[in-house]
User: Fold these one by one.
Assistant:
Number 1:
Amino acid sequence: MNLDYLQMKNFRQYQDARIEFSQSPTRNFTIIQGVMGAGKTNILNAVTWCLFGDEKHIDKKYKGLPIVNTSALSKCEGKVCEVKVELQIIQSDGKRIRVTRCENWREQNSNLSKISMQHDFSIMRETGRDWVGPIYGDDAQYIVDSLIPPSIEEYFFFDGERMNDYFRENTGKDIKSAVFKISQLELCESLISHLSARRSEYLRLSRGLSSKANDIKMIVETLEKSQESDKERLKELLRDQAEAQRIEKEYSDKLRNSSLERIESLEERRVGLEDDLERIADDIEELEKEKVQFLHKNMPIIFAFDALTKTKSLIEGRKEAGMIPPPVKTVFIDSLLKKGKCICGSDITAKDELSCTRRKRVEAFLRQSELSEMSNDLINCNVQIQAMIDQVKVFPDTSVQLGKRLRELQTLKDTKNTDVEKIKVEISQSNAENIKEWGKERDKYNEKKIKIGNEAAILNSTIGRRDNIIRARTSEFTRELKKEARHNSLVSLMTFCEEGIHAAQEVRDAIMKNVKDEICKKTSEQFLSLIWKKGTYNGVVIDDDYNISVPHVSGREGLGTLSAGERQVCALSFMAALNSVSGFDVPIIIDTPLARISNEPTRSIAENLPNYLPNKQVSLLVTDKEYTPEVKETLSKVVGKTYIINFIEKDYGGLSELVFQS
Amino acid sequence: MSSVNRKIINQIENSDYTPEIKELLNSLLQIEARIAEDKKPHYSEDYDRVIKNLAKKRGYREDEE
């Protein structure tokens, strides 16, 4: 990426100035030469102001002064004076981006004021043969920030003199911060921190979701196994019962066809009695069910009977006293208060004493009516209470009736059982041996049938209860499975985050090490080739804690004893190294790069500096003192364009012009 | 539009991580770059969106969460 041109209108010293930066790959240096105070640093400020809206290198003496050129403002005679800086950038793909920032100023009665503008920042983008835009505000700023992140611009646009101070005061922490910033490892750190926070959040959400599905599954499986075995057993019992019933019937038929008239009739009667007993048993069961349902329906009302009758009597008492229902509806009184007019037409807006008294009365009435509004609900309740009382009025009679019917059925059952027993005894006492035997066999199979029937009934009931348990446990199992699925999902997110954190840490550590080693190596190489005291230092070392040292050949530490010029060379080497390993393709502008370096060493720096900033567009803002004929001669192979800043006015804000020299 | 240092991007691309992890780191770095430049304080929603989208490629099912 290269800077194409910088156009300044009414910015600080410059009324109308333009710099076209050198685009030559071999002559990649642009020199802007001016005496102290001519406005070199303000060219650097024009660039940062245009890109980021901030004069990052503003000198103390300019801090209180307006950004607008004061001479131009005076000439406007109260009219609006526009400040405008336009910077055109050529991206690595050759497409251009034009960035423009403006401010409007006016001077009235010796007062300067900035006039707000709808759009003070815009960009135009070249796409193919066309220009797109203007793009304004945040969108425009986002595009600019993507090209040159504001957090690291100081490593591309910097002041040589301040760089010296920065380096002199540096600690390991500052160096580390510089490496972090230039490599954007802060992004990795933030990513690790934010990803860890997301992992913790997923962990929090997964708590309480650890599933009992396996335990429940085992219980359900055991229950289902028992159920299967019991169902098999029930089938066997029913088969045995049917067999017993069949044999019983065989003997019964034999008895009925025994050709002994008395026995035939007895057996015939016995079969009829057994059928009756079966029906009676069904009727008793049905009646008992009816009784239970009847009690379930009525018992709660019977238990609460006293409370219900008391409530009913209280409500009716209030009703008789005329307290309920409300005489006037709340909504009606409310509307009167809102209107400020009583039903009689009197004013109740409370604007005077009388009106205020009336309003208070109406408000008291409103409170009463609000209370009595609740009585509507009480009236409804009263109707329901009456219905409940009516319902239980029939309870004693119905209850007695049910009891009586049950007793009657029981008596009938007992009588029929006695008759059956009598028949059995009579048949067993028969003189005919075969009749006796048949009777015995029939009774045996009858007992067996009943015994099996009872066992089957118990088993059937167990199977029914177990079915309910299995259904409930299966529902629980499904719920647990869903919980388990949620838990597993969150665990998969946590695992993903964990892997991401681990990978980000590895990336960070690898880049830290590579960048540090590379910066250390390049700084050292550049320092040794730029420094004029050859054979004095071993190089520059950056340790694991990012402390910088310049070991002397004798072994002692030399950083503390470096001269101002040597320190500036060290800082320049470090900045150039930071730049070369930054990974960002951004041109460099250095203000007063050689200010503290004496004549002889500057030649060495001028010779070597271009080698350490290869393929970079470099602009140097130099004083006449720095840009000696010797330096000029040395740099002549790489300088593509040179501008001279001339003072026109020195007073107040000053006025300068830029003259293209070559 | 990326403003993430090319060195970080290259380090991720040249690593042996799975494509999902590479995409996760790249996407989250873009979010971090935007947060840093916009001073945008909230990140959770953006992070959640990226993590869940990429986790789907690894068998994660959103309706179960």
Note: The helical segments of chain B are 6-13, 19-38, 44-56.
Number 2:
Amino acid sequence: MVERASHRERGTQRSAAPSSTAAKAPSSGLHLGVIRIVVVNPGEDPLGGPAAMSVETTAALARLGDPVEILRAQDEQELASLTADPSIDLVLFDRLDTSDASTLLGAIESDGPPSIVVVDGDSEGEALAAFRAGASDCVHFGPEYDAVLPVVLLEQVQRWRADRQRQVSEQHIKWLEDLYAGIVSEMPAGLVVVDLDGLIVAENPEFERLFPSRSDAIPSGLPGTASGITEFLAARLPIEIMDAVSRAEQPESLATDDPDRHIHELVRVGEDGEEHGELRVYELRYRRLDETGRALIVISDVTEAEWLSDRLESLRRDTRDIIENINSALIVVDLAGRITFANPAAERILGGQDGDLGGRQIEDWFGPAGDVPHPIEECLVSGARSRGAETLLQRGDGQWIPVGISCSPRLDASGQSRGVVAVFQDLSEIKELELQVRQTEKMASIGQLAAGVAHEVNNPMGFIHANLHQMSEYLTDLDKYFEATVRLQQAALEGDLEVIRAAAEDVQAVAREIDLEFVRSDFEKALLESGEGAERIRHIVKDLRDFSRPDMPARTPADVNQAIDSTANIVYTMMKHSVVLEKDYHDLPKIDAYPMQLKQVFMNLLVNAHQAIEAREEREPGVIRIETQEVEGEILIRISDTGVGIPESVRSRIFEPFFTTKPVGAGTGLGLSTSFSIIERHGGRITVESEVGRGTVFEVRLPTTPPKDDAPFDDEAADLARAHPTTS
Amino acid sequence: MTDRPVLLLVDDEPRMLSALRRTLRREGWTLETASNGSEALARMAESPAVRVVVSDHKMPGMTGVEFLIEARAQHPDSHRILLSGWTSEIQEEELARAGVLAVLAKPWDDAELKQAIRSAMDR
């Protein structure tokens, strides 16, 4: 409409018709708005454009009463292009030569705008020729010209516009019909129209697919082609849907304030079996179409959608239940490091409630990056998952606690990171327990050691004890002999030969009785052997003292050969029956270390080697070989055994805390894990090679210049609080 | 001399055997020694028959209990006593299989040891 208004303005300006003449228009009472006329007249203006319209034509057009827009054409081409525009209302040929008019009339398409040919005087021939060439009407350029032309022109324009309007309407109706048919036919829902009696008036293919006709003789069809359908709806629909339709047809079920008077509900058909295939869910729409009682029923099979939506809902519920109830804390962090979600367990640790953690920065709890490992920050930066990392977190009450944390990036559909999901657990209790078990482990190995030492002391003590008892008996025997010799001595002094002889015989008798020769020599032997036993005990005590000298609170220069040798000597006491110990020590530089901790490692390795040998079927002694040497700035300690070996399947796990292959109660599973920590604290490393049935080699490497950062002496709590590495 | 009953002492520690001989030399038994289980079994296969065996437990090769189980199987008439400083790790079930009359701990009490051997001899 706005466009039309602008035409009018332009048209009014271009129009030669003064507005004052409009009042004299032969008004039909009908206003046509701007009339667009192409005027063709002979001659050219001096610049080659069309010559001006005649005064008479200009005056005639001014009388139309409606604004006029004049367009000009000089040849067939211009005319053809202008008349292709459906908004052109008329072409006016103003007194052209007959042949020119005929030619130009040919340029107008048959369904183009009407044309009026103005002919001179009463020339019937010219008018006839014009009609033959396709002119819609002819007007004589006579005395009544300025009155006749507007009348003829308006009549032509009105007729043309009415024709065009009808054409457009017909096209529109056709288009709507096609659209409607297309929608009805292609719609993924069953459509059916029924009358008051429930007779099917029309249905679409989807309805036929959902609820096939019972009789092949009855054709289905689109609206308008539904002739011959005599089926009743009840014969086609399952009883559950029919019930719903019947309910819908009750007048009271149609809301009176609903202008469309329709009903929309879900109907479940069949039994709810294990497979969702047995139960089908239909979406039913019912709409009363008109007062005759015809109704449109739309039925869609939404079983899959319902099933999916049920699944989605239960999945959502399950996920929420899990997240709300797990003991692990779970938080979601956005790219800016803000918490966007925290479950109750996370709120308990972080010190928030009812979602008031949202929007706070994770830096509030996790130490500033750099001081402690920061898995969430690392995950935000790198987008890489991490599992089971350990770090420290400042709880809501200000206390720092160890936590185990796993992070996964949250990716959108295009793989871009949207943040991080982090799951973490308070490890305080676990660490406390681990500490206790490590203490138990220490006590257990001390107990084992004590038992071995006790046995080793017991043996010499056993025979020393027996010998002492025996020697005191020998002493009693020798006393008897001594008394007899004293009596002989006295007799000799008295000089009575008979008495002397008798005393001498008595000495002989006593010597025989007590087996003097044996007693004398065995006394000496018993003394020697007891001395030897005492010496052995002295050695054991010295070994024990060498072994157990407590560490200083800082690293001290340590002789690794001495450390391993004193350990081997102690441990050997309890394994000497089944093990041949080979030692191959080379000169080593002293290193700054905690010797007692190193001895703990060596003891663990030697005890394991011994147990591996004991686990064999053979009774022949096994061999444990200890080698030390300096290799490329490192001290290498190699402890090899000929025991049962470690199966490939568990080799990667032997340094894990609590991993043990021994029966319940026989091992804590912390021996090698503790050893690993101790060697790591010394800046070294520990590796294993093993072959089942052949034996195992453990290698410990210690740098000759240990790391500067000094771990607190024997402070396992501090040790455990650090991230705890495991081999994998 | 020949009709004195034979007492076999088994220990891998020579000083221990020496001390045992010393202690038991006047009890009227023929004392013989072996330093491990297989040596002791070899002696028991010979005559005169060994009446009582006193054995240590922790020894190279077979343990004392293993030896005594074997000794009982081969010589049901012999009687067996275990003398060890390492008794806690021996299982009751094994002791029963070995038919051990007494388990004595090192260091032993002389009178107790002699009494145990004596009552074994008298069975």
Note: Chain B touches chain A through 21 residues (CB under 8 Å).
Number 3:
Amino acid sequence: MNHLNEEQLVLYYYGEEGVAPDAAEHLETCGACREAFAALERVLRTADGFSVPQPAEDFGAQVWERVAPRLAGRRVVTMAPVWRWAAAAAVLLAALLAGRFYPAPQPARTAVAADPQAGERLLRMAVGDYLDRSQMVLAEVANANPRQPFDISFEQERAADLVAESRLYRQTALRTGDATVAGLLDDVDRVMLEITHSPARLTPLELEKMRERWDSDGILFKIRVLGANVRAQQAAAASASGNTRKS
Amino acid sequence: MERHSRALFRLAYRMTENAQDAEDVVQESFLRAYRQLDRFDERASFGTWIYRIATNCSLDLVRVRKRRNQAPVAPDQPGDTVPELPSLDPSPERIALSGEVRQRLAAAMSQLSETERAAFVLRHYEGLRLEEIGHVLECQPGAAKHSVFRAVQKLRRSLEPIVSPVR
């Protein structure tokens, strides 16, 4: 075999593909290449010393605290304009009220029909609450001790409830043309289904794989973003409604 | 988010060499991610996507700084960027070299082009594969490989004379 060139040595150091399959063997037998590789290792190990200060334990939370207020008013993951949600909210709320959330659907349905803005407010609250609870379920699993098996039966029950609930929100989002929101709700749903259908007792490996998938999907970030949007809209609506009452 | 935040901080710090700048980059990255969430391709990894955003934020900051001809806002604690010499041989001579090595490493890193630095940081410190680096830097894996290779060559030129074993 020919000597390894500099590029091959770098690729070999990083365990990248594209190095001759017998490179390791060659390095064992070829003094010149071994010396060249050792020189490379010395340089790159020196570069390892470029250390980074450790951010605080709760750095992620701190970042989110600073970012969240700035999300308000930026409507990129937009929920549909108020009038469209209001119309859909009336339908959705009627469905919600007919379900297990409130015992007396009939009078409320009338109230919603008479006041679509109230329906929209309730819808936002319901979606906000749904997102908060989804986030809690994910956080419970994500923060579990990675070295021990974890019993998720309690989270599974909550996830199953959330799956049943989300269908209405998704339908509403689709009806109002909010494909992005519907897509995000779909993502949340998929994760909740994954939890529901997992074994009740997760091994550390299963737990880690699950977390990796969530990380890769950025699901917690998306939930937070959508939650922040909903809360911003709630605040804006509350402020607008306060102004209307004053005038 | 905790995991992503820390990873982004590390990346941004190594790009900007300043903790405050790195924190700003992390925040700005999440804001940009939020603004661009519609464009997130579900088939891609969220981690790679947000790395791309953070790399671009870091590069933006470095470019602005360059245009203004500024060094990093405030040099961080001396210990923050002190490279620890390979532990094989902690002789007094080598320990005495540490200050020089630190300076050489900083100088060598600053000689890298923006792309080389980003590619090297992503490969060497963050452990991304060349293909992933290509996604982050929006280039072909071959171009990513070339950038890493060029960065390593430059570092070798600067550091080899001082880390070579004394014969």
Note: The longest helix of chain A spans residues 219-246.
Number 4:
Amino acid sequence: MSDPAHVIRFADVEQTFGRDDGSAVTALEGVTFDIGRNEFLAVLGPSGCGKSTLLRLIAGLIFPTRGAVSIYDLTVTEPRDEIGIVFQRPTLLPWFDVLGNVTFPLRHKYGRVSAEDKERAQELLELVGLADFSAKRIDELSGGMQQRVAIARALLLDPDILLMDEPFSALDALTRDEMSLELLRIWSERPKTVLFITHSIPEAVLLADRIIVMTPRPGRVREIIEVDLPRPRSIATLSEPRFHALANHIRGQLFSRVAA
Amino acid sequence: MPLQTISAASSSAVSPPETKARPVAVGLRLRVWADRLAPAAAFIALVVVWEGACRIFAIPSFLLPSPSAIVRAGFEISAAQWLTNISATLRVALMGYVVAIVVSIPLAVALVNSRFLSRTLYPILVIVQSTPIVAVAPIIVVTLGASDLPRVVITFLITFFPIVVSTVTGLMATPEELIELSRSLRAGRTREMLHIRIPFAVPYIFSALKISITLAIIGAVVAEFVAAEHGLGFFIMFSTSFFKIPQAFAGLVVLVALSLILFRLCTLTQRWLVPWSLPKSQR
């Protein structure tokens, strides 16, 4: 099997949306970049810069107006099995317990869940640190725990690609740092190609191999930054001079009003 | 054996932590009971004031019968007669209600699924709902003849709209992310509806079912006012036409009780079938 250096490729992607009044909004323009195998790529930008559009293009939920998005050199024409998605809100189903929520993608796709599937879901719950919570109801969990369940759910079909749309932005600051480090641990145990959308600069620097900084609407790639902080990263990484240098650089990029 | 249990209980009650916690617990328990009894106490107070006013001001019973007069009038009617009337009203109300559920929920699913249907059918539904059914009832009775059918149709017409509107709202209230999750799994529209949209609509549907069950009783009574030989609506009409006002009030009391019981049954069904759809405090 061929193993291209890049897993996901955006080639000069433009995305316009029609409004109800007939006018069109350009969300993305001339977006070109690659994501390598098992790379952790963060996308950072002001709100409304089309970050979530990037994610939906990869997921095959929408298709570019111009240019092409490809996964393993195949143009995306429909949603694919090798993708797991974690949204901003956990969006769990209150009528299932925790385990039922993790196995939901299988139930939903194939109509049934086998004993093996449940075992795998239980392993995933262990991975995200909720081994003893499988029979709990959703409203018994904290926000951070719910998002852990959502991560386990996204990992159920063992995807190569994990798409995360500001997954920790609804959490309080302490839980957020904890979840970031948890995500790094999970990622090191189950390496995946990750696209992580965020509007938090420290979060992006702490997590990512590379960071794409976007411009405001229409979203363009302003800069792609290599994060050369050593791994494994920990809470101590947050106080390294290099961490602050990178964060300051990005802050400068985001707040300079003149287009790059 | 019971003696042992009592001594065990009392010995535990005497243990130090228990005695310390006791005054607080008693105060709390009193407050809990006061809270629980408040509605009943208010109701009893109202009945007492009503009875007192009727006696003191000697209000004639054809204007406002006293509670005791209503109870007496109620007991003058034989149990068999009550049963006939209750069962007639209940039958019409429940048949109309069940038909409304069976029609409304699939209709709501169809409206959500098809832009064409929602553009064409929904305005018509709003027109039907805006028509005063009480005014249409005599026409329906003439058209459909003298049987349960017109009464069930009238009940249905009063009952179905809240269920359609609430179900549509519920089906549309599903978080967009879950629909995207469903689409990313390529699960198909049917599974999206069955696994995500309909369960998400359940709390909305039950709200509507609770409103509609009381409307169903209203519908049945309206229908009986127009044309019926039995039923509580007929009974009240019949009683008032002979100036038996206490008897009419007794019929009213039975109707209210019936409505309350059915409402309660709806709540219990929800708690039994889909407890997750209730707020934590009501489970």
Note: DSSP finds eight helices and ten strands in chain A.
